[in-house]
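Good morning,

Attaching, inline, the backbone tokens for the sequence recovery test we're adding to the shared suite. The designed sequence is right after.
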């Protein structure tokens, strides 16, 4: 069964983002079916592909008179992610200011169409990735994360960069190290959300859910 083209879309960077968002929304009471929605999540493969999709996705949403959303990482290697987002809004006749990058998430109405953007971990963060979003859902009392971080730090300081993870992937290395020593070792991010390793009561999770529901009128 192919997803109805008339249903609203949420465009994300990759399959992992798609699975995490679906699991999180489900845990917070918003269930999405991959074919019948009420919102269809479409992975693009990379951030650059997602940004390239912005204008055509807006045009498709305009044709069907429904909202459209985008979720992407701030990242640490790109200093102009906010400028990239602002440029995409200008390309479809909208405007986003620096003040719009806040904890509530970006939602603008352009020619009667709501357009939303969420940057991981939070639009207010100015840097980070999906892993930083998930880290924010780990309870402060967790005893494993500091040990996992210390292990990754030791690896980073004692092994040649040629033979280990890239510095830009440090958050990912820490998160997977943390998952590797749980009761069910090595669960995926999505499964870890379903098994309540991550707290969906975390402010960042609630803020993302609120943005999603506002954008799609759920």
């Amino acid at each position: 069964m192919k997803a109805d083209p008339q249903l609203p879309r949420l465009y994300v960077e990759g399959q992992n983002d798609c699975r995490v968002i679906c699991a999180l929304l489900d845990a917070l009471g918003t269930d999405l079916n991959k074919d019948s929605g009420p919102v269809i999540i479409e992975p693009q493969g990379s951030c650059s592909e997602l940004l390239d999709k912005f204008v055509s996705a807006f045009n498709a949403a305009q044709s069907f008179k429904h909202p459209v959303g985008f979720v992407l990482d701030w990242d640490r290697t790109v200093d102009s992610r906010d400028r990239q987002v602002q440029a995409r809004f200008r390309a479809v006749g909208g405007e986003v200011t620096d003040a719009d990058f806040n904890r509530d998430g970006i939602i603008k109405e352009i020619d009667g169409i709501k357009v939303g953007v969420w940057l991981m971990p939070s639009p207010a963060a100015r840097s980070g990735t999906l892993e930083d979003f998930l880290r924010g859902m780990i309870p402060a009392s967790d005893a494993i994360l500091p040990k996992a971080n210390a292990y990754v730090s030791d690896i980073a300081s004692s092994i040649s960069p040629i033979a280990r993870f890239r510095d830009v992937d440090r958050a990912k290395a820490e998160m997977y190290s943390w998952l590797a020593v749980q009761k069910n070792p090595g669960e995926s991010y999505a499964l870890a959300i379903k098994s309540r390793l991550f707290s969906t009561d975390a402010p960042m999770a609630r803020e993302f859910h609120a943005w999603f529901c506002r954008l799609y009128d759920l």
